[in-house]
Amino acid sequence: MDVNLNNKVAVVTGGTMGIGYATAELFAREGARVAICSSTRSNVDQALAALAGKGLEVYGEAVDVSRRADIFAFADRVEQTFGGIDVWISNAATFLQKKLIDTAEDQWQKTMDVNLKSVYYGGLIAADKLGKRGGGVLINAASFGALIPVLGSGAYAATKAAVVSMTGSLAGELAPLNIRVVGFIPGLIETPMTAEFIARKREQLASQVALNRLGTADEVARVLLFLASDCASYISGTCVEISGGKFCVQNPADAWT
User: Fold this and answer.
1) To 10 degrees, what angle do helices 154-174 and 105-112 make?
2) Minimal CA–CA distance to 158: which of 191, 197, 113?
3) Whether residue 156 lies in the annotated active site
4) Share of the chain above pLDDT 70, in %
């Protein structure tokens, strides 16, 4: 199946590790011209070197996605480098692991800024940059925590629930510009961001999934490739769950015993 991404320009925020890195690699392999960013320069350099080692040329910068001037300047430079932007993936996030009642106000604000304000900025950038191209696709990273919050990461879950809502709003607002807006809802995916959390309770977490295992970043990336492609041309305003059947029934582990 031809996903028709040859020479399309795709931006992946938080693209240096985990789901973002896997997505950047897959899009580049499918012929897209890819740009990534991360808040840490060393992470950007390591990701670019790893991708180059696989024969993939990707553009990257260190960017604070919570700062309007920084993320808009990054979008401008990507546009100047590649001539435009067709796909914008708001993937960058911070995963604060604290109960809400133990969350300091500065931690709350940082979580809101990185996880939520950056998605708002992505919507503004999409309206401008993708709009100039006659349309495109905006993809927002939500989380299963948006559907069922996890005790101990309430601020994170709140931002992701808001991302689900914003995805619908942006889909309606950007439709006249021929821009599709979709979100994705990963379950427990093994990434550097979730490694510590998974290490504490791997068996318990896997038992909550119908497939009885955790997901991989590559499995999520393949769904994002589909959503960004013409194959998904009538999908907008919704969030796709990628969770292996997490809580599709109340007792998924019973099938395995």
Assistant:
1) 30
2) 113
3) yes
4) 100
**Residue 178: Cβ within 10 Å count:** 12
Q: Please, which residues bridge with residue 59 across strands?
A: 35
Q: Is the pLDDT of residue 2 over 80?
A: no
Q: What is the pLDDT of residue 1?
A: 63
Q: Which amino acid is at 172?
A: G
CA-to-CA dists, residue 93 to 15, 35, 74, 244, 248, angstroms: 11, 17, 17, 22, 26
Beta bridge partners of 34: 10
Cβ–Cβ under 8 Å, residues 9 and 58: no
d(CA 220, CA 218): 5
| pLDDT score recorded for residue 169 | 98
Q: If DSSP codes are grouped into helix, strand and coil, which group holds residue 75?
A: helix
CB 65 within 8 A of CB 89: no
Residue 6 C-beta-side C-alpha neighbours within 13 Å: 2
Domains and CATH numbers, the chain: 9-256 (3.40.50.720)
Of residues 155, 153, 143, 135, the one with CA closest to residue 86: 135
Residue 201: predicted pLDDT: 87
Helices (H), the chain: 18-29, 41-53, 68-82, 105-112, 118-125, 131-132, 154-174, 195-207, 217-228
Reported pTM: 0.96
- Token pair belonging to 15: 């693209």
**Catalytic choice (21, 59, 156, 234):** 156
